[in-house]
């Protein structure tokens, strides 16, 4: 019998806010332990939380980016459990009335259930909560750094719509691209800004009933998630094949050993004793507030790629460059707006301009040349006024001086020679000066033509219209 | 005899230059020295800091600052040991906080200091405000200044006793189910539980967050009105505080109560009421009627469910609120082999029986499988109780009840019977569940021994103005507030 995996993800990301969720302490990574703390985030007696307005906005913005519904009423709850890194020994989280619900993410992944290479994962909810401190274990004692305690955390829960390690990886990549693009989170894995819990079960292929759900906790890299699934799915399938019945449990991913191991069974599951957080009022967003949040919506990576392909007829490779490089894309769009052959501009921007940026270390805004100048340069090539070789020279000049291309060409006398009689004379001279090459061509060596063409271009200092040179040489040699 | 003055009398003297803030503070410290061994209201006090604050007040006075700008300038005010005062101990009368010193000021402390008060002292209470007698304090029981064999009430027993013993001109406590009004009644002072959201809870160690409210204890109604005005107001640090204007409550005083309709709840005239309490309250009602108010009967039909509702909601919230006392970040710690053992040992040794009882109760009612039957049900009943009051307030401006069913009982009389102890709050807890305001003021004394009896006035949400008007008119037409406890 064939088996299939059913996978759902709980992805926690730290929100990109200046301050923490309930207090004014800085939300920054890398400070000395317990330096970004105050009575509130240390859970001192008598303190009260005040919800971070920006975190609420980012949560609802995430909802919009993930095609979620925004419920008219949301609230916070206390999730009770003891752990030394938890300052209050309860976590404030949106339990049964989250700020967002019922959305979806579409992403490029070809597999079972995908349509035209596109897959879709439903989002159950994205809810706001708080991070905890970080424990460090020393030889004879442990320490807790509460700098992270109270950092706003968004938990994005997917439906069990994923079917394997690769699809899960692609979903995570797409999700984090969206969150980064939306300014929701930097999703910096190195800084622990993203953590995943994975729910995975297996069942006979085509069955509708779900198998026993096994949760793998606390993975903080994409590859960790993929490797854990690559281990866990075959483990479960083998167990089922052996006739074992899998029991609902929570497992831990051991990154070093590359295995998952039992953490606790269903019977030992925490009873979190949720109760509504009495220190915070329910959150009822007003229409003007929602309007303001919608004003922060941005074009998402997939939509941007599709638009560059549709609007400028670019191949997917080019569109992906502009999808990922916002400033370069904007530069391209300004140069290509209304132009008949945007691909030619894309070539120059992606090849020459990008290389120049890397070389110079400039950002797009620091460039000396304007999008209009780039477009003019492309137009000069396309209309045959300069050769593409000369265009390279012109581009270099533009990059250093910022002078418009026409002025450079004028100053340098680089205008392409398309005067047939002048080129005829140069071609005749080249044939005569290189009689052996001429003979070779006549004997059938087509490559000899290129040599002769090169000679003419050299003599003309690159200004001769190369396609005319080719035509004339060939005609003369065949005469 | 400076310590016997009311705030308004003291302020008048200070403004006239008849006495200094330092002298007023010294008078309180002297009185504490003289009587507190017998009353045991204070857990501790920082005399040096108090005198420094008094000197600062005197410098402000010398520079021309008046009581118009700072209505409590130079007035010594003491705090229940549940309110954070920067640099001072904060123990909540519990062993679990060890030698914890608060690193910050509660909003009410800032407000008192802004008003010029000399804020000092840590007043005894039931541990974490759980109790009605201070017998649940981890340190000692505060005794009633009227009869030292009796309890002072609770949980803010230290606050009430300190005012009745004239050890402070006013004190600030907290009321979750009657913890201000009940001890105020038993000690013969005025105690106010403002409307939920009226006073910031920032800096008040939480017992039951949706019920807790800070309020004052004073020697008369005028002082209570002033203190309430100083304490009240929106605080951005407390999301549950309300942005409602704070009126000058004293400006609403009027000895003529004509035009007011006042309700007597049928359900509060229960059996089990002490006959002397019953008689005193009836006389007070007649007196208020004679001042012009119309007295009508009202019904609060869900009253009988208030205690049950309270003892689900309050412990549920407490079980979460008290989870932070774990020995990890501050307070006392009992080491263990791992964090979990450290936690359970610390809490096992750090909390007293009543606190443990309520944490267990709260943990139980929030447990999976019981939550709907207990917590959700209790929240629904709570809404019904609130609706009872809102409906009654469609026809009346305020409601009168006894504050407590009996006068102060003997130390130890109920300490072994939690249920009997819980019934001390039968008249006061509905007010917290409904989120309305309430006040207790003296309405007479028992014969022998002579013990104070309290009258409770319950007002509409943010109806403190009317509450103080009724209370002041009544008080000024009766002699009770002029009676001094034997230790005064």
Task: Compute the number of helices of chain B.
Answer: 15
Within the CATH hierarchy, at the fold level, what is the topology of the domain at 2-259 in chain B? Amidase signature (AS) enzymes
Q: How far apart, in Å, are the first and last alpha carbons of chain A?
A: 75 Å
Radius of gyration of chain A: 31 Å
Mean pLDDT of chain B: 96
The oligomeric state is: heterodimer
Distance between termini of chain B? 9 Å
Secondary-structure arrangement, i.e. CATH architecture of the domain at 2-259 in chain B: Alpha-Beta Complex
Q: Could you characterize the architecture of this molecule?
A:
The complex is a heterodimer of chains A (479) and B (488). Chain A is an alpha+beta fold. In chain A, 40% of the residues lie in helices and 19% in strands. Chain A contains 15 helices and 13 strands. In chain A, helix 12 crosses helix 14 (447-459), helix 13 (435-442) packs antiparallel against helix 14 (447-459) and helix 14 packs across helix 15 (466-478). The model of chain A has no long low-confidence stretch (mean pLDDT 92). By secondary structure, chain B is of the alpha/beta class. Chain B has helices at residues 7-16, 21-39, 47-62, 107-114, 157-164, 181-187, 221-231, 275-290, 306-321, 339-350, 353-366, 371-392, 418-422, 429-434, 464-476, and strands at residues 42-44, 76-80, 118-123, 143-144, 147-151, 170-175, 190-193, 213-218, 261-265, 294-298, 398-402, 437-445, 452-459. Chain B has an eleven-stranded mixed sheet with strand order 1-3-2-6-8-7-12-13-11-9-10. Chain B has a two-stranded antiparallel sheet with strand order 4-5. The model of chain B has no long low-confidence stretch (mean pLDDT 96). The A-B interface holds A 39, 42-51, 78, 80, 82-84, 87-90, 142, 144, 146, 271, 273-275, 278-281 and B 82-84, 90, 92, 97, 100, 102-104, 106, 201-206, 208-210, 236-240, 316-317, 319-320, 323-326, 328-330, 339-340, 343, 363, 366-368, 371, 375.
Summarize this structure as a short list of keywords or feature phrases.
heterodimer, A: 479 residues, alpha+beta, Arc Repressor Mutant, subunit A, eight-stranded mixed beta sheet, 19% strand, B: 488 residues, alpha/beta, two-stranded antiparallel ribbon, 15 helices, 38% helix, 14% strand
């Amino acid at each position: 019998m064939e088996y299939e995996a059913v996978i759902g993800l709980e992805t926690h990301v730290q929100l990109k806010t200046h301050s923490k969720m309930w207090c004014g302490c800085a939300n920054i990574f890398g400070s000395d332990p317990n330096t970004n703390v105050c009575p509130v985030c240390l859970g001192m007696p008598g303190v009260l939380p005040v919800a971070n307005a920006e975190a609420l906005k980012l949560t609802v913005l995430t909802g919009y980016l993930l095609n979620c519904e925004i419920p008219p009423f949301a609230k916070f709850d206390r999730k009770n459990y003891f752990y030394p890194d938890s300052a209050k020994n309860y976590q404030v989280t949106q339990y049964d009335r989250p700020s967002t619900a019922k959305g979806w993410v579409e992403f490029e992944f070809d597999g079972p259930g995908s349509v035209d290479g596109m897959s879709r994962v439903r989002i159950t909810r994205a809810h706001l909560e708080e991070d905890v401190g970080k424990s460090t274990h020393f030889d004879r004692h442990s320490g807790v750094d509460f700098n992270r305690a109270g950092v706003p955390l968004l938990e994005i829960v997917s439906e069990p719509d994923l079917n394997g390690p690769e699809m899960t990886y692609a979903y995570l990549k797409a999700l984090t691209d969206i969150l980064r693009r939306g300014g929701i989170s930097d999703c910096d894995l190195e800084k622990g800004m993203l953590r995943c819990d994975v729910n995975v079960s297996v069942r006979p292929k085509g069955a509708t009933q779900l198998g026993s759900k096994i949760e793998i906790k606390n993975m903080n890299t994409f590859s960790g998630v993929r490797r854990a699934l690559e281990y866990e799915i075959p483990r479960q399938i083998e167990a089922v094949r052996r006739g074992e019945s899998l029991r609902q449990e929570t497992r831990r991913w051991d990154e070093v050993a590359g295995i998952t191991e039992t953490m606790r069974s269903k019977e030992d599951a925490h009873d979190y004793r949720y109760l509504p957080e009495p220190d915070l009022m329910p959150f009822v967003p007003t229409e003007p507030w929602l309007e303001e949040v919608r004003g922060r919506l941005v074009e998402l990576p997939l939509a941007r790629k599709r638009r560059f392909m549709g609007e400028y007829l670019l191949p997917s490779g080019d569109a992906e460059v502009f999808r990922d490089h916002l400033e370069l894309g904007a530069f391209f769009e300004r140069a290509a707006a209304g132009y008949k052959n945007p691909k030619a501009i894309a070539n120059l921007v992606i090849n020459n301009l990008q290389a120049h940026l890397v070389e110079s270390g400039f950002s797009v805004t620091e460039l000396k040349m304007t999008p209009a100048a780039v477009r003019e340069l492309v137009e000069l090539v396309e209309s045959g006024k300069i050769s593409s070789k000369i265009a390279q020279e012109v581009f270099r000049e533009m990059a250093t001086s910022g002078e418009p291309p026409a002025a450079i060409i004028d100053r340098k006398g680089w205008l392409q020679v398309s005067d047939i009689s002048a080129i005829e004379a140069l071609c005749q001279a080249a044939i005569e000066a290189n009689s052996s090459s001429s003979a070779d061509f006549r004997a059938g060596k087509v490559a000899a033509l290129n040599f002769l063409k090169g000679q003419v271009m050299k003599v003309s200092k690159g200004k001769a219209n190369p396609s005319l040179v080719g035509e004339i040489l060939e005609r003369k040699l065949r005469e | 005899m400076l310590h016997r003055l009311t705030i308004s009398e003291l302020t008048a003297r200070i403004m006239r230059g008849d006495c200094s803030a330092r002298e007023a503070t010294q008078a309180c410290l002297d009185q504490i020295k003289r009587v507190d061994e017998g009353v045991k209201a204070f857990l501790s006090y920082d005399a040096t800091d108090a005198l420094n604050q008094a000197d600062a007040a005197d410098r402000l006075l010398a520079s021309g600052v008046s009581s118009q700008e700072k209505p409590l300038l130079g007035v010594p005010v003491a705090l229940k040991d549940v309110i954070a005062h920067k640099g001072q101990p904060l123990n909540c009368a519990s062993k679990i906080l060890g030698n914890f010193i608060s690193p910050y000021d509660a909003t009410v402390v800032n407000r008192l200091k802004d008003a010029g008060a000399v804020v000092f002292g840590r007043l005894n209470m039931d541990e974490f405000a759980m109790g009605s007698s201070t017998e649940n304090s981890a340190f000692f029981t505060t005794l009633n200044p009227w009869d030292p064999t009796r309890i002072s009430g609770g949980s803010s027993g230290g606050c009430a006793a300190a005012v009745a013993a004239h050890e402070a001109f006013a004190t600030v406590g907290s009321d979750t189910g009657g913890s201000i009004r009940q001890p105020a009644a038993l000690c013969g002072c005025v105690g106010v539980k403002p409307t939920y959201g009226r006073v910031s809870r920032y800096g008040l160690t939480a017992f039951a967050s949706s019920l807790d409210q800070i309020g004052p204890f004073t020697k008369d109604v005028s002082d209570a009105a002033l203190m309430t005005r100083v304490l009240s107001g929106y605080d951005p640090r407390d999301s549950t505080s309300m942005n409602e204007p704070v009126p000058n409550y004293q400006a609403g005083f009027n000895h003529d109560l004509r035009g007011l309709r006042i309700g007597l709840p049928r359900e509060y005239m229960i059996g089990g009421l002490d006959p002397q309490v019953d008689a005193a309250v009836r006389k007070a009602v007649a007196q208020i009627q004679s001042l012009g108010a119309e007295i009508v009967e009202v019904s609060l039909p869900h009253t009988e469910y208030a205690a049950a509702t309270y003892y689900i909601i309050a412990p549920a919230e407490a079980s979460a609120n008290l989870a932070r006392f774990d020995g990890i970040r501050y307070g006392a710690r009992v080491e263990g082999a791992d964090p979990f053992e450290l936690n359970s040992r610390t809490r096992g040794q750090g909390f007293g029986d009543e606190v443990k009882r309520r944490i267990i109760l709260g943990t139980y009612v929030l447990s999976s499988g019981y939550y709907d039957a207990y917590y959700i049900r209790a929240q629904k009943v709570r809404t019904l109780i609130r609706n009872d009051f809102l409906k009654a307030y469609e026809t009346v401006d305020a409601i009168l009840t006894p504050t407590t069913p009996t006068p102060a009982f003997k130390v130890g009389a109920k300490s072994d019977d939690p249920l009997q102890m819980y019934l001390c709050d039968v008249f006061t807890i509905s007010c917290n569940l409904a989120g309305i305001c309430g006040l207790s003021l003296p309405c007479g004394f028992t014969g022998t021994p002579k013990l104070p009896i309290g009258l409770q006035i319950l007002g509409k949400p943010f109806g403190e103005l009317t509450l103080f008007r009724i209370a002041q008119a009544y008080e000024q037409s009766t002699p009770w507030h002029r009676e001094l406890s034997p230790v005064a």
